[in-house]
Every structure is written in C-alpha cells, then in structure tokens.
Amino acid sequence: MELDLSPKNPKQVYGGDGGSYFSWSPDELPMLRAGNIGAAELELAERGLALPTYSDSAKVAYVIQGTGTCGIALPETPKEKVLPIKEGDAIALPFGVVTWWFNPNSTRLVILFLGDTSKGHLAGQFTNFQITGSKGIFTGFSTEFVSRAWDLSTDDAEELVGSQKGSIIVKISDNQSMPQPSEADRKGLVLNCLEAPLDVDIEGGGCVVVLNTQNLPLVGEVGLGADLVRIYGHSMCSPGFSCDSAYQVTYVLRGSGRVQVVGIDGKRVLETRIEAGYLFIVPRFFVVSKIADAEGMEWFSIITTPNPIFTHLAGRTSVWKAISPEVLQASFGTSPEMEQLFRSKRTSDEIFFAPPK
Prior knowledge:
By secondary structure, this protein is mainly beta. 14% of the residues lie in helices and 41% in strands. The protein contains eight helices and 23 strands. The protein has helices at residues 31-35, 137-140, 143-149, 154-162, 219-222, 319-322, 325-332, 336-344; strands at 11-16, 19-23, 37-44, 48-55, 58-65, 67-73, 81-86, 89-93, 98-103, 109-116, 128-130, 169-171, 190-192, 200-202, 206-211, 225-231, 236-242, 248-262, 268-275, 279-282, 287-303, 310-312, 352-353. The strands form three sheets. Strands 14, 15, 16, 17, 18, 19, 20, 21, 22 and 23 form a ten-stranded antiparallel beta sheet that branches. A seven-stranded antiparallel beta sheet has the order 1-2-3-10-5-8-13. Strands 4, 6, 7, 9, 11 and 12 form a six-stranded antiparallel beta sheet that branches. Helix 3 packs across helix 4 (154-162). The longest helix is centred in the middle third of the chain and has 9 residues, at 154-162. The two termini are 39 Å apart.
C-alpha cells in the first residue's frame, strides 16, 4: 500500500489587488482525494472583499491571522449574519451557506478552509460558485432571464450584469460603505479557539482545544470535528490514532518540528520535518506522533467526524496500560522485569510529554 503523505504548501489559484486565493491540489497531495477532503486558504489585503460565494462542500474555516468581517447567509434565513472575526476563530459552514469576507484593516486577513468533498463535484477539491462578479451566476443567464427573474427592464438588466468586472476577490474604494458586524451574530456560529477553555493542559508539554458538537453544535451539520493544538519547545505529542475510522488533516500554524506516521505492517510511511504553512493528512487508523523544535509548534486539525475518539499508545491513558501484564510479556517476548519497567513509565503524563530534564 504505497502512500504519499508528504506535507505540501498550497498553490495560488487567484491573485489581485484585493488579495489571493490558494488551494491544495489532490494531484500533488493524493490523500486529499483518498479522504475526500478539500483545503484552501484566503488572504485578503486592506479593503479586500471576497465576493459572495457558496460551495459544494461543508467546511470549517479558521482565522490564521488578522481581523475582519464575515457575512453568512444561511438557507431559508431572511437576513444575513455579519460577524466580526479575529485570529483563532473557528467557523462552521454547512452546505448551502453563502459567505463573503472583508478586511477593513492594513494587516492581512488570512483564513484557512478545510472540508468534506464527498458530495462535491471533484474529490479532494472545493468547487465554489460565485453569486456576483465576472464569473458569477448573473453572467451566465441571458438578459431576458435576468430581467424577468428580478423584474428589471432590459436596459437595467444589461447594466447590472455588465457592471460586474471583478472575479473572486476585489479591492473596494475607501468611500464604499460596508455592513457593520455584530457580536451577537457570532453566537452559535463561531468558537474562538484561543479563548475557549482548554480540554487538555499539560505543564511543560502542551495544550489542546477540541471543537465538537458540545461547544459549536453546527459542526454536527458540517460532519467534522476540529482541534487547535500547541506543544512547547522540544515537547512530544503521544503516538496515537483515530479509532473511529476518521482521517486527520493537519495544518501547521506556527513553529516547526518532526513528524512520524506508522501504518500497515508496522511500516513507517512518513518521517519528515514540518513547518508553518504545511498541510498533511494521516490516513484512517494510522499512528502519528510529533516532536516540536525549540520554539514549539502549533497546528489546527480537522477530523472527519464531528465527535472524534482517539486512542493513545503512550502515557497514562495508553491502551497498553489496559492490557494484562502476562499478555504484554508474551507479546513482546520479554522478561517480567522488562514488562514491569515498560508499564511503570508515563504513569501520570497524558497525551503531551515535556522534554527530558
């Protein structure tokens, strides 16, 4: 079973004065296609507007950098939600939502999108449909259809369609007003992972915030779980695997380190360095572990189930701790003394291990 799990950076799909759109291709990262997972990144410059769009895939968006505004129009909802967004925000985007993104500030706004493409047109790749712009839906219909659908005169319909020059992202003028975001609109749609209570916090090791149906119910509709993980300098993340048949998609936000993945027949299928901007995918049931460099490492992951369950192979909650000593001794083919030594280690550490003193 030959797998290419090498981490990859995205390629630019679109770039202009207002910003850029990047995507990871399943041709370069085959695990995207195998796992039916899409991944993309939006970068908006000052006054950059990502035009209203809907997608063929449910997604989770994560704000990597900056602050700005997100408009969300939910199906069968008469008025859009206009949210203030900031670094650390995770936003669940189910099927059918129309979104736009705006950056009013001089600092670039960077947003990561990870999602499920199993119902999409292309496995491993998002297909986005613009409502407006030179590639928007309006431009595809004839003047007759536009005028009749929206009760416009032929001249007005031609003017409306002909005025749409921009594509994907535009830069709007300073005198163009934009909707004011409302903190109230964030409720139920956004969880800030940098401010949420920690689900795990290991002194000297690392910490994690888990995004699931308890703290953001909409992820149930998206069908994805997520987490934000930080491990400190030279710390280790325990070897573990998803025991509910889920893929784990990891984007490195900050720092760098090493990663190893072990798969079928005990074969090490990945051993490499990872750094900020890299994306890689761990197949179902494969075991992954990471060790941070001196500056530590932070990553955001989605898991292809809304309430993921992990089994860890080291630490206090290790599955090996649950197995009978006699079975371990026989399985390893070792002495009782070695089995006792093995079992006596990591009796209090959990998930993250601080560097040796």
